[in-house]
Structure prediction request, 996 residues.
Amino acid sequence: MKRLLKFFSSLRLTIVLLSFALLVVFFGTLDQVHLGIYEAQKRYFESWLALWFYPAEWPGGNSLQTFFIPLPGGFLLGILLIINLICAHFTHFRLSWQKIGIACIHTGLLFLIVSGFLTGMLQEESQMALDKGQAVRFSQNMRQAELVIIDKSDPYMDYVTSIPTSLLEERKTVTDPNLPFSLTTLHYYPNAELGLQAQNPEAVPTLATAGAGAKMGLVVFPQPLSRQDNVVNAQTAYITINTDEGPLGTWLVSSILDSDRFPPQQFDYQGKTYEIALRFKRTYYPFSLSLIEFTHERYPGTNVPKHFSSLVQLVNPEHSEDRQVLIYMNHPLRYSDYTFFQASFVPGGNTSILQVVKNPIRSLPYYAVLLVGLGLFFQFSTYLILFLKKRE
Amino acid sequence: MNKILNFFILAGALTLIGLGFLPPKISSKFDYTQFGALPVQHDGRIKPIDTVARNTLLQLSGKQVVVVREHGTIHPTTWFMEMTMFPESAHNYPVFRIDNPEVLGLLGWTDEEGKYFSFNQLQPFFPTLAQQYQKMNPDPDNRSVFEQQLNKLYNALTLYTKTLYGLHPMGMLDSLTLEYASWVALIGPGMEAIRLQQEGKPFNEEALQQFAFVADHYLEVSKTSTLGIIPVATPEETWKNVGHSLLDAIPQGSVDTITQNYAQLISAYRQSEPDLFNTTLTETEILLAGHISLGKVKFEAFFNQFEPFYRSILLYIFAFVLILMGWLFQTQSLLRNAFYVLLLAFAVHTFGLAARTYIQARPPVTNLYSSAIFVGWGAVLFGLLLERFYRNGLGAAVATMVGSTTLVIAHHLGTSGDTLEQVRAVLDSNFWLSTHVVVVTLGYSAMFLAGALSIFGIFKSIFSRTLDKPFIQSCYSMIYGVICFATLFSFVGTMLGGIWADQSWGRFWGWDPKENGALLIVLWCAIMLHARWGKLVGAHGFMIMAVFGNIITSWSWFGTNMLSVGLHSYGFMDSAFVALLAFVLSQLAVMALGCVALYRSSSA
Prediction:
């Protein structure tokens, strides 16, 4: 036990762990070129073990591309560093005024690592596309899709049943107590393009027997999953609806067939009207935003963007709120638990895209950084003062 | 004897600075200095013509001057005057730089013909170039080196053409005033003919055709020219170029006085009438002064001519040589003089930095070029502080080394155009630019200073016969102190960046390459400090680690920017990458030397 404590509290372990952290960050950054920032983050910084492969396009890549370096992932390093830090404090440190800076730095770093873990687990990010004059009550997660069955029979309320795409991937039959039928996935494509059968006679004929896929003769062209940060994958699937009396039909659903541009795919069963759609996962809010004006200024005589801003109407009937908000770079709207940032726009100026973030521990890194900063400042200025005194 | 030496050293340094105040020697009766200081709007900013000339030349040839065999060196403003007033002669100046042997081969040349070619030399090959341009890969990320270089040449030719249309519509340059007058005369009958045509009545077809022909041409010019020469009511809005100004004659009934003045200048220049040229120039300046205050633009013209960073480089090198001589001959007075020269160099460097901040009305670091200038400035500042405490010439020596090197790097980074370019919307926050960016950059300064100190320490241990223990010890304590500050600045700066990111897009940490680069510096500093506290390294070990810090910092500074170009494109193998690689190799070599020193000191 003592030897174990000694091992976990040793300074050598700190140096080894920090050196591995250096390597993981370096190779993770290199791989961002191939994987994109999001995927590299998952593989290197939010993992237990990471493998870096020699890139094929580097010199000698043909023979070296099977060469790889195994590295401890960010989670493993983070946990080991926390253990190391805590053990070291219990074994080596006696609290004194000279050491208070170091204690500050290390506590702050502990908070920083912890807040990194928590942010990874708790932070929700999505996008809200605002068209001029249209009130929007939801945002979409462009990385996650969901299959939804919407019961539209109640004129005042839609009943939405959401099925995660992971169940579609496994091609299991899905049943739900709220639905009088079951769903079977015939095919699931993580990314695809759609085309018209008439224009692509050589393509595999559509499997759809109902809905837009059958009516328009839509065919599916499977695409490789893109990891580029600015490319959206279009999840697509063929879904068969089975009832006790036999199958109702097969529908083609895809996140490309969004409700803005295409009519909803509806069907009737047992006197009720349902809508089926595969769409980006939505988060609904008890308030709405609508775009009044989007402004895009450029520097005179150039195309260099100078300033973007969205003038938005915020309406919350619960608090009888109805006011204008200006959202622009470095000046987001913070409302209820969410923060709305100016992220992007669709050329033409009628659509503004906001990034919506919810992070319950948003302020933790601020305190952590303050603690480390003060600690470093205190520690190094005492060192400087001592040094100057010695020289005198 | 000493006093005389002191006098000559300081007089030399001051002369070097003083020369910057003199206008360059050009035997011309045309007042090109005043012409170069005329305000125009270009790339979103109001600037003197001299700046436009320099940046255009930089983009074409990578240099700010033109070297012509018969004429010697041509000043940027005079080149611009030739371009816009006497293109027949400017077309013979070799301003297009072509490095790529495949592009040269396409034109039937080899690199024996040199690197610089004139418009007239290229003209016969325009069909070939256009044909190859059509075939080019439309995706810029997947172009071959040849395609990239071809694209570069094509862009240079486009820029050249746009520059030609800067001050006139490329009509009859000898009779521009006449051309404008006849244009004004065409407007009335032309508009009348259009009105009649629209009403379905008989109209003068010839008047309509003549008017439409000229108007069409001016419309084309207004789309081509990127030089705003006529201020509008609020100077921040887009200025009118010569095409717009001539089209404005349709509702106004006359051509703008400033455009007419430029026409006058052109004809005076072509007919070799310097007196007329100079008086028209003064008139034009007075006219423009009615719209905007010229102080800033004139200051920028002076800043261009003074070339503070070029002067600082020379002074830093001068100081460095003095320090080496002071060490060699064991002369304290030389070291003291070196310190004064270094102070002068730092003052000029600071002036340049402050001047850029004033002209741009932005914090000092806004792009890679300005970061290089600031890294050097910070390192010299830290070095001066070290010298103030230790007084052994070491702090001053590394200050001169890092100061001059980073300014040379800045010079090479500044060849892509206007280094005072506008800040993109994402970065538009003076508060964060002046806190996060400045602090991170000071962290780079400290890292490079520690690295440079270590290189000195290692060289001293290797190349002196006896082990100079006190020197190594003081060197070690300097490096330790500097690394402590590097840690502080790098950490605080990186975290300020996190706070900025959280404020602007809700993500404290996004694992972006640049963030990761900054994190690497912080991690490396932490490793160094813990290794020292755990007594795992001594003086030489710490020095070797600090030299490796140079590699990490250069990766963070430049390497991460090269990644964004994408490994798929061969852009990764461009000259900057080769330079970075060479730097890394040189640092590895120094580290190997450090290992030898480490071995010798431990066996001694």
Observations:
- Residues 469-505 of chain B form the longest helix (37 residues).
- Chain B touches chain A through 63 residues (CB under 8 Å).
- DSSP finds 25 helices and six strands in chain B.
